[in-house]
Design a protein that fits this description.
Blueprint lengths: L1 H20 L4 H29 L3 E5 L8 E5 L1 H24 L2 H24 L3 H20 L4 H32 L4 H7 L7 H19 L7 H5 L5 H25 L5 H24 L4 H24 L4 H36 L10 H4 L1 H15 L5 H15 L3 H27 L23 H4 L1 H22 L1 H16 L1 H9 L4
Antiparallel strand pairs: 1-2
Length: about 525
């Protein structure tokens, strides 16, 4: 069982190391990347299967040092789900990259960097120590910054500077909070901290202040209001494959960290902390969706929607702390986890589709696109599936994710957040409709010529582009797979929701986590 905990770290690290050793052999790097991400996905699925059937939490004490003295790796169902999604998105983006990533970037370390990023993400999900969570965040930051700036284009560098500056501020808050936390509690092991904070701690005010420091640090990482401005300023600047992996995974690491610490550690003054989370969730939804409605660039619209949808995930976490009913706590957290699953798949796919639209139309600017539905109906259908799911149209995955959250909010009489969630859903539909109307439905540019940079010219002879461009057809393979997964999550909502309920029950049952890590069978 311990092997299942370390494989999600060892596999991408090994692939990155061998790829660096094969620096001048790009084809080998590509094979390694595909094989490595597939192996990561298989290992993650095995981990979740073990967690599901064993109904327990798997723990590894590195070096056999008992908690809280050593390095602890922990996997509960939430961790396992997140690692599976990491492997799935890594595989989809890697396959997409084979046909989309230009040779100069691919030859200058793209595949090793991508695997180091995946290792950092998996490490953040599997660590049981708050300091090691900081370490894994820094691994992610270093690899993501280089990926963002890879190629050195002016727009990339501008976006990368904003990205790294805000994330370094987040790291400073995080490290300060870790230092103060160690001074207060004398430990950084999360299970040990949870045990110390089980009842109201001696320094309750200071501990609550620490919770606010962690909220700022993780809020920046998650792009929570009002700390989200770095995201829409940077995510549209790199190549599409990099934008897609960032959109799918990086903010979710911040959301995961918020869920972990505000269900495990900072649970004794929930009337304040979780009410604040609920307010921030509503503001995040509104500002994100209004920002999206004001944009006319494909990826900037999607970037603002990342911000908006983060609000839904935090909404469930907030409701968890504002109710005393165990059943409603589970429902709220299950809704958040379901929403994370849905959003990672859908948002990654929409970014990948934006790259196909740019290939076919020559631009990300909606005003310079058009005619995609007429010429490429298959691509248009593939866009509609994640777009309608993002807006919450049944029977797609987004509908069931929002339904669970709305049910939890109504049951706890938080009617204002329900109204916000429903209105934001309508505005999300408006944004997706705008993309559809501009890029897919309206006629191509009147002069029949594509925007600057288009691969071929428009006109009566342009329709068979996909048939004559194998590279574009290959781009549709991971897109089609993710669209099928979106449909499957909707059609198989009951078993998926059962999985998220089991994960939420483990989060609510803090004692199970503490006992598993500290060596007593739950």
């Amino acid at each position: 069982m311990n092997l299942l905990l370390v494989l999600p770290l060892i596999i991408p690290l090994t692939v990155a190391a061998i790829s660096l050793a094969a620096w001048n052999r790009l084809r080998l790097q590509q094979y390694l990347a595909v094989g490595g991400t597939a192996a990561l996905l298989i290992a993650a699925l095995a981990l979740v299967a073990s967690l599901w059937h064993g109904d327990r939490i798997i723990v590894m004490q590195v070096g056999s040092w008992p908690a809280p003295y050593g390095i602890t790796l922990v996997a509960d169902l939430l961790s396992g789900i997140m690692v599976v999604l990491t492997g799935l998105m890594g595989l989809a983006v890697t396959i997409y990259s084979l046909s989309s990533m230009d040779r100069p970037r691919a030859s200058f370390g793209y595949y090793p960097l991508l695997n180091l990023l995946l290792m950092g993400v998996c490490g953040a999900f599997l660590t049981g120590d708050i300091f090691n969570l900081y370490v894994w965040f820094e691994v992610m930051l270093m690899s993501s910054f280089v990926l963002l700036a890879l190629g050195g284009e002016p727009a990339q560098l501008r976006g990368a500077i904003k990205y790294v500056t805000l994330n370094l501020i987040s790291s400073a808050f995080f490290l300060a909070a870790v230092g103060i936390l160690y001074g207060v509690a004398g430990t950084l092991n999360m299970a040990d901290l949870a045990e110390k904070f089980n009842d109201e701690p001696a320094h309750a005010g200071l501990v609550t202040t620490l919770g606010m420091l962690f909220l700022i640090a993780f809020g920046i990482k998650a792009a929570l209001f009002p700390l989200f401005f770095w995201l829409p300023a940077s995510y549209h600047t790199p190549p599409v494959a990099i934008s897609a992996i960032f959109a799918g995974l990086l903010t979710k690491v911040g959301v995961y960290a918020l869920i972990r610490v505000f269900t495990l550690l900072f649970v004794f003054e929930q009337g304040f902390t979780h009410h604040l989370l609920l307010i921030l969730a509503g503001l995040t939804m509104v500002t994100g969706v209004l920002g999206a409605a004001a944009q006319n660039e494909f990826r900037r619209i999607l970037s603002f929607h990342i911000v908006s949808q983060i609000g839904y995930m935090v909404m469930g976490l907030a409701i968890f702390g504002l109710t005393t009913s165990p059943a409603l706590k589970v429902l709220a957290l299950a809704g958040s986890i379901f929403y994370i699953i849905h959003h990672i798949v859908v948002k990654t796919n929409l970014f990948l589709l934006s790259g196909v639209a740019e290939r076919l139309g020559g631009s990300f600017d909606l005003k310079r696109l058009g005619g995609l539905y007429k010429n490429y109906p298959g691509v248009s259908l593939l866009f509609l599936i994640p777009a309608l799911s993002l807006a919450g149209v049944p029977p797609l995955s987004g509908f069931f994710a929002k339904l669970a959250l709305v049910q939890a909010a109504l049951a706890t009489q938080h009617y204002a957040i329900v109204a916000i969630a429903l209105v934001v859903g309508l505005l999300t539909m408006f944004s997706m409709t705008k993309i559809w109307a501009e890029a897919f439905w309206k006629a191509a540019p009147a002069d029949g010529a594509p925007a600057e940079g288009a691969p071929v010219k428009k006109g009566p002879q342009a329709a068979p582009l996909i048939q004559s461009a194998p590279s574009v057809r290959r781009l549709l393979v991971p897109i089609g797979a993710l669209a099928a997964i979106t449909i499957m999550i909707g059609l198989a909502a009951e078993p998926i929701f059962e999985l998220t309920v089991r994960a939420a029950e483990q989060l609510v049952n803090r004692e199970q986590y503490i006992r598993a890590v500290k060596g007593t069978a739950p």
